[in-house]
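Researcher: Go.
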Amino acid sequence: QLQLVESGGGLVQPGGSLRLSCVASGFGFQNYDMSWYRQRPGLEREWVAGDRVATGRAYYIDTVKGRFDFSRDNAKKTVYLQMNNVKSDDESVYYCNAKPGEYWGQGTQVTVSS
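Model: Structure:
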């Protein structure tokens, strides 16, 4: 089992940057596919970015390609989401996810405002 704790959310201006972190506790972190999701009020949770252990690659939803960067540090059991050139549509609660098992963190709020 994994427990996931996100941090790094907050207020960011349009065009600004923010880095989210997700720290895992438990065994076998390096064997989990990790992802970031986001959810706006009244909308379904949306997959944003993640990696696959099988390929070693990161993948992104089209709307964040070129702006967000997903990375993982297995020694620290941590994944990151570097958010650059943030837009108003990026304002959401961001959640960390691990598969298999569908583990979720509690979420971290990103607010975009000038």
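Model: The mean pLDDT is 97.
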